[in-house]
Amino acid sequence: MFEKTIGLRKKELLKKKEQEKKPLSKILLFHVGITTHGLETWKLQNKITAEQSFRKAFDLIEQIIEMQLQHKIRIITIYVLAEKKQSLKQNPEEFDVLMKVIQQLLDKLARSEKIQTNQIKISILGKWFDLPAEVTETIRNVIEETKDYDNFFLNFCINYNGQEELVEACRLISRKVKADKLDPELITKSTIKESLYSSNFLPPDIIIKNGRGRSLNAFMLWDSSFSHIYFTGKNFPEFSEQDLLDAIENWKKS
Question: Has this prediction a pTM greater than 0.85?
Answer without folding.
Answer: yes
